Amino acid sequence: MTGLPPARGRARVRSDILTELFRVPLDPGYAQAARKRAAGALEPATWRRGTARGVLLVALLAIGFLLAVSYRYVTAAQPETTKARAGLVADVHARRATTDELQKQADQLREQVVRARDAALADSDESARLRNLEVATGLTRVHGDGIVVRLVDAPAPVDPVTGKRSSTNPGRILDRDLQDISNELWRLGVEAVSINGERLTGTSTIRTAGGAILVDFRPVTAPYEVTAIGPGSLKDEFNGSSTAKRFRAYVGTYRMQFSVDQRDGITLGAAVPPRLRYAQAPQSPAPQASPGPLPSGAPGRTATRRPASPPVPSASGGNR
């Protein structure tokens, strides 16, 4: 009987603690500690973002400065570059005009030499034989009927993204194309061939230097016209050749232009006379010093010298 009041007191104390615990679930100290941790976590992140923005700003300023300096340098050097290029172009045109004038003078002098020679060798077999040889070697003007093979570059392809023309053009005329057509005409037995007025000979060269095609070191540009003087059946024979068929296939594939036309009354000028080179016998080596006198009674020795071998003639020829 005496233990009931104390039991009730313990139950009341326990219920007050539970009530207080459920009513205030978080201790103010924990809440304050959480707030401090949150503030401490934000400070490093804010500092990092500020540092990154500063570095990015410095990098942008440096790039802008470099671009400004480069632009100023380019704009300052552009007038000098344009002036130098214009000077070089003018020099090229002037030298080309001088070369053409000298070529005309050389042709006139060559005609005078031919007339004087024909007058000296009039009514002789040697004169006719000499004229035939000059025609074969391209050293005289030729007049007759023939054909003209015309080739034009295909238009450069356009980039569908940028709209600019591509630098690579598979339909562009190459030096080997002119070589193939010239060789085919020679094979058909033509009398004379020229490319854009440049007469071909047995030592002519057709090659590419940079972006230009050179015929005997003289540049030729599109459209390319290969003119040949030959028999009346030359056009049909050339059209039936494998070379003409291949170029017609190029027309359908690469859209380049290729045509063969009959032409009457063609005149082809003389080619530039080649520089002739002659074989020469090698010079004999200098004689060596004679040895001292032989002792008495010693058999005499006669020095023998191997005769110099005759020079081997060099094979002549050229590309057409």
Question: Could you describe the 3D structure shown?
Answer:
Belongs to the UPF0749 family. Residues 92-119 form a coiled coil. The chain crosses the membrane at residues 55-74. Residues 276-320 are annotated as: Disordered. The protein is of the alpha+beta class and 320 residues long. Among the domains are: 9-80; 144-159 and 168-268, Protein of unknown function DUF881 (Alpha-Beta Plaits). It contains six helices and eight strands, in the order H-H-H-E-H-E-E-E-E-E-E-H-H-E. The chain has helices spanning 4-23, 28-120, 125-137, 175-187, 234-239, 242-254, and strands spanning 142-152, 192-195, 198-199, 206-209, 212-215, 218-220, 224-229, 257-268. The radius of gyration is 47 Å and the shape is elongated. The N and C termini lie far apart (140 Å). Mean pLDDT is 78; it is low at 294-320.
